[in-house]
Design a protein that fits this description.
The complex is a heterodimer of chains A (about 475) and B (about 575).
Chain A (H helix, E strand, L loop, with lengths): L5 E2 L2 E5 L2 E5 L9 E5 L5 E10 L2 E6 L11 E4 L5 E4 L7 E3 L15 E4 L16 E2 L4 H6 L2 E2 L6 E3 L5 H11 L9 E10 L1 H13 L6 E7 L10 H15 L3 E7 L1 H14 L13 H9 L3 E2 L6 E9 L8 H9 L2 E4 L2 H5 L12 E2 L2 H4 L9 H25 L6 H18 L9 H12 L12 H7 L4 H5 L1
Parallel strand pairs in A: 9-15, 13-18, 13-19, 14-15, 14-16, 16-18
Antiparallel strand pairs in A: 1-7, 2-3, 3-6, 4-5, 4-7, 5-6, 8-10, 11-12, 17-18, 19-20
Helix pairs in contact in A: 10-11, 10-12, 11-12
Chain B lengths: L3 E8 L2 E5 L7 E5 L4 E8 L3 E6 L11 E8 L1 E4 L7 E2 L6 H8 L18 E5 L6 E3 L3 E6 L5 E5 L5 E7 L2 E3 L4 E5 L4 E3 L2 E4 L8 E3 L4 E2 L4 H6 L2 E2 L3 E5 L6 H11 L4 E9 L1 H10 L16 E7 L4 H20 L3 E7 L1 H14 L13 H9 L3 E4 L7 E9 L9 H9 L2 E2 L4 H5 L12 E2 L2 H11 L4 H25 L6 H18 L13 H23 L4 H5 L6 H4 L6 H24 L1
Parallel strand pairs in B: 8-23, 21-26, 21-27, 22-23, 22-24, 24-26
Antiparallel strand pairs in B: 1-2, 1-6, 2-5, 3-4, 3-6, 4-5, 7-17, 9-11, 9-14, 10-13, 11-12, 13-15, 15-16, 18-25, 19-20, 25-26, 27-28
Helix pairs in contact in B: 5-6, 7-8, 11-12, 11-13, 12-13, 13-16
The chains are: A alpha/beta (about 475), B alpha+beta (about 575).
Chain lengths: ~475, ~575
């Protein structure tokens, strides 16, 4: 029996939390409706329940709520109404349409918290996704079912990169159902306009669902926005057989909301004030990427986060990096040099790369060529430090070749147009063009037969 | 107060119940769905329970029932080849029960109750037996014979013993006092299984990884900590150890791991072939997978589940190894639960008992004489640590370092340069080196220790020289030091770097390691002679023959290649000498 009694027994309000006494037994995680005296209603969720007191977190903040407000417990966890019609729609951070269209007629109502995929039911990701961006395809390959975040900094073009990926991502030689679910948390109105316009202009909107929680929307709402997006993605992937790309931006705002709730609950804080359970909480989001044996669809995630003070050891990027399968790191230095996309490949990594590349998937020489690019660029970058002390004249010919390579690598390989969609073949050819400026015997990461096949002879000497 | 009470409060994985009697760590069933939980605190009128499943919609007032027993695992034939979650629920069975997603409240036995095993008795009627004694065997997999033991704590005279096909819970032996022994018994996971005697670890655990076996060896029954910031290749090295180390039984615990990576393990292991027996590697492996999004309390338990299973096989006389990835996730699970209990936090929010728990855990490793057999056996523990931000001074790493004897420091910088395995040779150490040195001298080569020490000093010298090179470039170094740099480069690139994905290079036997190092030092000796005889250093550094040593990495007939490399070095050296003479 559902008890929909309204309680007027609020005893304390602190931050986004409302403490209610003398209730019937209320379930943990139950959804709550709060009615203000002026008739306005707000939604919330039970964070802590006991015989004495129930702690409710209001998704829309507590401003204007007083002890006279009444609280109703709805007897169920938060569910999202889903249907195939959710594609092409723009919704707010709580899943309500804001595009002027009709309400969504549900085919199903799903628990937004999802459930963990049985590790035994997962199918390992192995399909190469071509993003058309050389630094990703060539050196940090994305595969279906992966979660690969972009670690950015404020003012860097992470949103452009995310949009470019959303626009260009495809699995070579396959025409399949593809959808994008986009969740914005705490982004500005201006940024959101840009996203929507971009989706509309490229015609991508019809195969996308957009959730928008803007900077002036309540901060706590941000805690449910990504869950709504992922629930939608799961529905599209596992019920509608679609390959879904989920973009979550900006996870830093999400984590700040998590911290806000923690401090309002007077929890003992962990590192830098973030709650001790942030790792587990983030895992329940990121781990919703993947593929399941026997099901056609998949969920690939690209969460975006801005590193506070460009510090990669800050708890948010740090914990994220422990859960996701690698990271794409953007560099302020490259950005200042005018290079787009300013991906710093050295700290970047795709842990699932080896599953998605090689003969029959990308190209036979992909792994070795990529390792060689890493090694040569790392060496070139180290030499820059040396040059600033001793000058270029003091370098050996070998070192000079690597130094030159590093510059060419940034200008030609990393740098590309906002709308330049490079095929993997183009990226691989470019790789060899650059590597061929290094003497053949210094390419120690590549086997002799590949060098024979792909190395462009005399390239180095011509350049001299 | 009795065995049943009701829920008072629910806050995430922590549930408070009232009106119920319980001992610490008793297992309780919570709510109408009977979720499994464990008592972790007792107050005057209430008990605090950590629940191993999602607690959504659990309400105050729902029933709580005490089973009266601590959290235990089932031990018996059928463990090998299994894939469990943190509290020993078989994941393939769960999939059958609840589909692709894990729904709560699904329970099933860890061991198959229907499968019949062929039991061969070793003991006979009238024998006096006690805990740990082996009374019979079961061929569990083609390579592992499961020894059926009298559970610790039980003793008596055998009244009846059977042979034939039985399920794990059918009686196979009855003692005079009526005690029934089955092939399966339960053991509480937080209680170490008893042994007869602990021995000193003096035999190496051979891993086939050159840098580990040669420079930083681990002993059977020893402990190792593998800290690595993310992106430093930690997972690959753990997988390599699980695949290649010469332990007979491998227990791999994915504690708070990534789902996709765990799947890689689950997919990869069944396909791997054990290099020694030619049988699937899973026939000697137990996998425990509790991914980061599975309930946090089960993550806390997963480590204990793993070590208990490892100890069980140790008691049969086997060398078992357990790999835990990662113990930091385990520590974080403790922290999370501790913070829900509103305990006073220690350093960085971790509970004050963090280092005690870690020490207790690693103390369960060891080389032992088990209770019931004279075969020396062991449990080796390898724990990965994931220091936040790569900061090795954080509490989990530091507490781990205080107890483990081997430290394999993974280095993100090396990984970025694609130097794999990215183990930093100047930070890593092994305290077993001295005692294992004897074993290596006796079993591999008398000059093992001498050669390893020389290589280490070359690497150390390189590190010092690199600082100068950073400032002035390598050309301005004195000639002998340029040779050192070159030899060090050879050690790094030819020897230390090892390709886990190459069929041959993935495993390197001890003899090969010795020969490779010997060949590199052979070149160095030659180079020094050449230098003394006036050969320009430039010509020595570009000698082609030395690169032949690198070829041996990828070939099975390394002996031939290395012997040939030495010959070629001799020839090229002779030529250079002749040029100087002219």
């Amino acid at each position: 029996m559902m008890n929909l009694k309204a309680y007027k027994t609020i005893n304390r309000i602190a931050g986004p939390l409302i403490f209610v006494e003398k209730t019937h037994p209320v379930g943990y995680g139950e959804i709550v409706k709060i009615q203000l005296e002026n008739g306005e209603t707000r939604m919330g969720q039970v964070l802590d329940t006991s015989r004495n007191i129930v702690v409710v977190q209001s998704f829309e903040g507590t401003s204007g709520i007083d002890k006279r407000a009444s609280v109703r417990f709805l007897g169920d966890v938060l569910r999202l109404k889903v249907s195939g019609d959710i594609l092409g729609r723009i919704l707010d951070g709580r899943g309500e349409p804001i595009d002027g269209g009709p309400g969504i007629i549900p085919e199903d109502e799903l628990d937004v918290n999802g459930a963990s995929i049985n590790p035994y039911a997962r199918s390992p990701p192995r399909d190469f996704i071509q993003t058309g961006i050389s630094t990703i395809d060539g050196m940090n390959t994305l595969v279906r079912g992966q979660k690969l975040p972009i670690f950015s900094g404020s003012g860097l073009p992470h949103n452009d990169i995310a949009l470019q990926i959303a626009r260009q991502a495809k699995v070579v030689d396959q025409k399949e159902n593809f959808a994008v679910v986009f969740a914005a948390m705490g982004i500005t109105n201006e940024e959101s306009k840009k996203f929507i316009r971009e989706f509309e202009e490229t015609g991508a909107l019809e195969r996308a669902t957009i959730f928008l929680n803007l900077a002036d929307d309540p901060a706590v709402e941000r805690l449910i926005t990504p869950r709504l997006a992922l629930t939608t993605a799961e529905y599209l992937a596992y019920e509608k057989d679609m390959h879904v790309l989920v973009i979550l931006t900006d996870m830093t705002n999400y984590c700040e909301s998590l911290r806000e709730i923690g401090s309002a609950r007077r929890e003992i804080p962990g590192r830098r004030g973030y709650p001790g359970y942030m790792y587990t909480d983030l895992a329940t989001l990121y781990e919703r990427a993947g593929m399941i044996k026997g099901r056609k669809g998949s969920i690939t995630q690209i969460p975006i986060l801005t590193m506070i003070g460009d510090d990669i050891t800050h708890p948010i990027p740090d914990l994220t990096g422990y859960i996701t399968e690698g990271q794409i790191v953007l560099s302020r230095d490259l950005h200042r040099k005018g290079i787009y996309p300013s991906v710093d490949v050295l700290p970047s990594l795709s842990r699932l790369m080896n599953l998605g590349i090689g003969k029959g998937k990308t190209r036979e020489d992909h792994k070795q060529a990529s390792d060689q690019l890493y090694a040569a660029y790392a060496e070139g970058r180290e030499l820059r430090g040396l040059v600033s002390i001793v000058g270029e004249e003091a370098l050996s010919d070998r070192d000079k070749a690597f130094l030159k390579f590093a510059d060419a690598f940034e200008e030609k390989f990393v740098n590309q147009g906002l709308r330049e969609d490079r095929s993997i073949e183009t990226t691989m050819n470019l790789t060899w063009e650059l590597l061929s400026a290094i003497p053949e015997h210094d390419l120690t990461r590549i086997s002799a037969d590949f060098k024979k096949k792909y190395y462009i002879k005399d390239k180095g000497e011509k350049k001299e | 107060m009795g065995k049943e009470g009701s829920i008072f409060r629910v806050a995430g994985p922590v549930v408070v119940a009232e009106g119920i009697e319980a001992k610490m760590y008793d297992v309780v069933r919570v709510g109408s769905e009977k979720l499994v939980g464990e008592v972790i605190q007792i107050t005057p009128d209430k008990i605090v329970i950590q629940v191993y499943e999602d607690t959504s919609n659990l309400k105050p007032g729902e029933p709580v029932e005490n089973t009266g027993a601590p959290l235990s695992v089932e031990l018996g034939p059928g463990l090998l080849r299994s894939i469990y979650d943190g509290i020993e629920r078989p994941l393939p069975e769960l999939k059958k029960m609840t589909g692709d997603f894990i729904r709560r409240g699904a329970y099933t036995n860890a061991l198959d109750r229907k499968k019949k095993w062929e039991f061969k008795s070793l003991a006979k009627k009238g024998d006096t037996v006690k805990g740990g004694h082996i009374i019979g065997t079961v061929q569990e997999t083609e390579i592992i014979q499961h020894k059926i033991m009298v559970p610790p704590g039980i003793s008596g005279k055998i009244r009846k013993i059977k042979k034939g096909k039985f399920t794990v819970d059918e009686p196979i032996c009855i003692l005079e006092d009526g005690t029934v022994i089955t092939m399966m018994h339960k053991w509480p996971i937080r209680k170490p299984r008893p042994v007869n005697k602990k021995l000193f670890p003096e035999v190496p655990l051979i891993t086939g990884q050159r840098i580990l076996d040669s420079l930083f060896p681990l002993a059977k029954g020893g402990t190792a900590g593998v800290p690595g910031p993310f992106g430093s290749g930690k997972t690959v090295i753990q997988h390599q150890l699980a695949k290649w180390s010469d332990a007979q039984i491998v227990v791999f615990v994915g504690c708070g791991e990534r789902g996709n990576e765990m799947t890689e393990v689950l997919e990869e292991f069944p396909e791997l072939i054990d290099p020694k027996s030619g049988r699937p590697l899973m026939e000697r492996t137990v996998l425990i997978a509790n991914t980061s999004n599975m309930p946090v309390a089960a993550r806390e338990a997963s480590i204990y589940t793993g070590i208990t299973i490892a100890e069980y096989y140790r008691d049969m006389g086997y060398d078992a190894a357990m790999m835990a990835d990662s113990t930091s996730r385990w520590a974080e699970a403790m922290r999370e639960i501790s913070s829900r209990l509103e305990e006073m936090p220690g350093e960085e929010g971790y509970p004050a008992y963090l280092s005690a728990r870690l020490a207790e855990f690693y103390e369960r490793a060891g080389r032992v004489i088990p209770l019931g057999t004279d075969d020396v056996s062991s449990v080796t523990l390898i724990g990965a640590v994931s220091p936040p931000g790569g900061d090795l001074s954080e509490p989990v790493t530091q507490s781990t370092l205080r107890v483990v004897k081997t430290f394999w420091a993974l280095d993100a910088k090396l990984a970025q340069r694609r130097h794999f395995p990215s183990i930093n040779w100047s930070l890593s150490y092994s305290l077993y080196e001295e005692i294992l040195g004897e074993w290596f001298s006796k079993n591999i080569a008398p000059d093992w220790k001498k050669i390893v020490d020389e290589v280490k000093s070359i690497l150390a010298e390189e590190e010092k020289l690199q600082e100068i090179v950073q400032l002035v470039g390598s050309d301005s170094l004195p000639e002998p030091q340029q040779i050192v740099l070159e030899v060090a480069r050879m050690v790094r690139e030819f020897f230390l770097q090892q390709n886990a994905f190459h069929d041959v290079d993935t495993f390197s036997e001890l003899k090969k390691n010795h020969m490779m190092l010997d060949s590199i030092l052979y070149f160095r000796d030659k180079a020094e002679v050449l230098l003394e005889n006036g050969v320009p250093v430039k010509n020595i550094l570009i000698m082609k023959s030395k690169n032949l040593i690198a070829d041996s990495k990828f070939e099975k007939n390394y002996e031939k290649i290395l012997n040939n490399a030495k010959k070629e070095i001799d020839k090229e050296a002779a030529k250079l000498l002749a040029e100087v003479g002219d």
